[in-house]
Amino acid sequence: MDKMWAGRFSTALNPVAEDFNSSIRVDSKMYKQDIQGSLAHAAMLAKQGIISDADLAAITAGLGGILADIESGALPIDMAAEDIHMFIEGELTKRVGDAGKRLHTARSRNDQVATDTRLYLREQADVVSGKLKNLICVITDCGEKYADVIMPGYTHLQRAQPITFGHHLLAYGMMLSRDLGRVSDAVKRMNCSPLGCCALAGTTYPIDREYTAEALGFDSYALNSLDGVSDRDFCVELCAAMSLVMVHLSRFSEEIIQWSSWEFKFIDLSDEFSTGSSIMPQKKNPDMAELVRGKTGRVYGDLISLLTMLKGLPLAYNKDMQEDKEAVFHAVETVCACLDVFAPMLQTMTVREDNMLKAAGGGFINATDLADFLTKKGMPFRAAYKITGQIVAYCIEKGAALSDLTIDEYKSFDGLFDETLYDAIDLKNCVQRRTSAGGPGAESIKKQIKYLREIVK
């Protein structure tokens, strides 16, 4: 295929350089958006009297036929082409002749590529948002189901205070709800049309950029043509949002991996989302969670690639920017794959409530409640903290839990203790009395569930 830019050159591009220069393996994903942008551009050219209505009709019919043929498989995309934009324009010219050659009037590949990329990523952001909402719904349902299942909460991977499994799960729902907001915010800034910026300096033709922006569903158009063709902030911002999604999925995966181990045995993952060992017949491995954790590094790498690619570029367009799409497309696709596997993995897990309760019974996680018992009787918290620490040391020496000590043993530490302390340190009561907003108490959990369900509406 002859290059659209071949007029200036006397020799053909070296085949090695041609392959190196080509981006069609990546940007062919944008064939629909390229046609969509071209249809809007052609309609604007005709409205402004830059091309004839007959040319518009030919271009519109030709692009419609190309789209139908690509989607039916009748027209395979030629991977020898330089990029999807040149492939479609070349095919259009074959089909409609000179009218096709007029399509590129008042347009450059620079603003064309920037437009297509925004259109494609806007659509992909909606896909990610849908998958995030689905996972938030699954987490919310599980949070409600296990709202009363007591487990130890941890700090420093040490048992700390009693919470519920539902409360723990809902924390991840909150993280993902922020991710949903970040994707939405990224789309707001992404939704600005660069079409009409041309190569870098606009055009002498009387184009209507507001018309094409509105036709393509953009909220506005780029006010500076240099910025319009060279801006890739929207790729970085979406990739940063994808990286934070992966932060949260990776943290969740780490806990799932721990919880499903024999050391914890808080959950069992379904056989549908586990694998075995080639040599150890007893093994059941949480490979899906491990893969999510592992793929996190790849998405971080995509973000760093974009930032590094952009950091030293002068205005306006430079070929380095061709590297934007592979990174951000990969990040989005990886996040989608991880979200797809995560939701059913949670839905099908078995929760070992007895093991969670047993773990909560050790580690003195009700020690703060014992100190609070003394504080509510008038003792300063620091004094109550010290006495409680002494009682814990005493229990460790005896191999006993706080609930195992007699009232006489408690009174030997301080006379404020009475029989009501046992009610105060009961694990279920410890959880339900944490009525402060955001805690594991029943009313707080209801508010958290309501909030998350409203977020996904």
Features:
single chain, 3 domains, 457 residues, mainly alpha, elongated, Fumarase C, Chain B, domain 1, two-stranded antiparallel ribbon, 62% helix, Fumarase C, Chain A, domain 2, two-stranded parallel sheet, Ribonucleotide Reductase Protein R1, domain 1, 6 strands
Structure, explained:
The strands form 3 sheets. The chain has a two-stranded antiparallel ribbon. The model has no long low-confidence stretch (mean pLDDT 95). It starts with 14 loop residues before the first helix and ends with a helix. The protein has 3 domains: 6-105, Fumarase C, Chain B, domain 1; 110-355, Up-down Bundle (Fumarase C, Chain A, domain 2); 359-452, Fumarase/aspartase (C-terminal domain) (Ribonucleotide Reductase Protein R1, domain 1). It is mainly α and 457 residues long. 62% of the residues lie in helices and 5% in strands.
List the topology elements.
Layout: H1 15-21, H2 24-27, H3 31-47, H4 53-72, H5 84-96, H6 98-102, H7 109-145, E1 150-155, E2 158-164, H8 165-190, E3 192-193, H9 209-215, E4 220-221, H10 225-230, H11 233-259, E5 267-268, H12 287-310, H13 324-347, E6 350-351, H14 353-360, H15 367-376, H16 381-398, H17 407-411, H18 421-424, H19 427-432, H20 442-455
Parallel strand pairs: 3-4
Antiparallel strand pairs: 1-2, 5-6
Q: Largest beta sheet, briefly? A: 2 strands, antiparallel
Query: What would you call the quaternary organization?
Result: single chain
Identify the overall geometry. Answer: elongated
CATH superfamily of the largest domain: Fumarase/aspartase (Central domain)
CATH architecture of the largest domain: Up-down Bundle
- The portion of residues assigned to helices is 55-70%
Regions with pLDDT < 50 over 5+ consecutive residues?
Answer: none
Supply the helix-strand structural class: mainly alpha
Spatial sequence of strands, sheet with the most strands: 1-2
* CATH-defined topology of the largest domain: Fumarase C, Chain A, domain 2
Structurally, the number of domains stands at 3
* Overall pLDDT confidence: 95
